């Protein structure tokens, strides 16, 4: 591939959406500030390594509210713990909500494992249930195993969960330590969506992306409120492959390399997913029922594997992509529906881990077109995740444990 060079026109080309680059897309920098959300926040000494005389990264990989009316913020560390705090800028510390380090494996040399996602049941206020996605410690299930489990909050303390309440829903063998996906999120339909990577290794060596008999490289959709025969969960009747003999019934969409992260627009219900690329392209997709997003026949909109014209024609295009001259590891966020920063209303916020940049992208769903992709921050500290609180305000975090939010200038 001919090497691309920078310049005003080249920059637009490199971050061009699937629309023709000649169409008008607003790429002006956005005058929005990134500020510390909790400037006095201190993490426990056992998490930061102070107790051992070390300096551990906190790795807050998931942030969310519980939608239970308490206005708390829950933050999961990749090391295997979940913490809770008042959603107050003056907050100084966290309470350990759940400690799963005895069963979660995280290794800095295999840094795509660990506690990777959690989600509260839509009826958490009444049933106390939440769900966790993590990498299991070595055992009879094998070293590379992803687990999705149900847990319950303590009956006596709302700030503490019961680690003994674990009910394993899914165990997914992984051929490699990387590309585990990890997002779990309840949709507006009340079902749990689970993002799985392609199993790791370069170029999807096991061809999981186009294999409907494998759960990997897919977004799953399950019913956690009932159990089908032989399963710890139910298969929704309207799942696209429900009842088919040659496909896994859990699959909602497939052909995805390694989604990090997936979210639902709380106003429209649209499902957004940022898929991390390999050689040249990072992409943003709108997830549809039964959709094939192309991996490993394509990377973004660009031919990658051996698929012919007929196979290429049935693939769903990303709504946006950018070249590795811009960034090399997309971090998906959410559509902003808060009130603190009106300049961001309706924008999908995302970042790139390697470049340290943040953008706000506006998409016209009726026209099927991106209308703006405006930079908020350039060349900052790497971001590892975004999250939303109960009010729709969006946060992002760094490996060191710093949590930021947005505000108007």
Characterise the protein shown here.
With 409 residues, this protein is mainly β. It has one domain: Neuraminidase. The chain has helices at 8-14, 45-48, 124-127, 309-313, and strands at 33-36, 60-64, 72-77, 81-86, 95-99, 115-120, 129-135, 145-153, 161-173, 184-186, 192-195, 218-222, 251-254, 259-264, 271-275, 281-286, 298-299, 302-303, 320-323, 330-335, 348-352, 357-364, 369-377, 383-388, 394-398, 403-407. The strands form seven sheets. The chain has a four-stranded antiparallel sheet, with no helix packed on it. The protein has a four-stranded antiparallel sheet with strand order 2-3-4-5, with no helix packed on it. Strands 6-7-8-9 form a four-stranded antiparallel sheet, with no helix packed on it. It is globular and about 55 Å long.
What's the story with the biggest beta sheet? 4 strands, antiparallel
- CATH level 1 class label: Mainly Beta
What is the mean pLDDT?
93
Query: Which spans of ≥5 residues are poorly predicted at pLDDT below 50?
Result: 1-14, 18-22
Q: Label the overall shape.
A: globular
- The N- and C-terminal alpha carbons lie at a distance of 41 Å
Order of helices and strands: HEHEEEEEHEEEEEEEEEEEEHEEEEEEEE
Name the CATH superfamily assignment.
TolB, C-terminal domain
Task: Give the class from helix and strand content and strand pairing.
Answer: mainly beta
Work out the helicity level.
under 10%
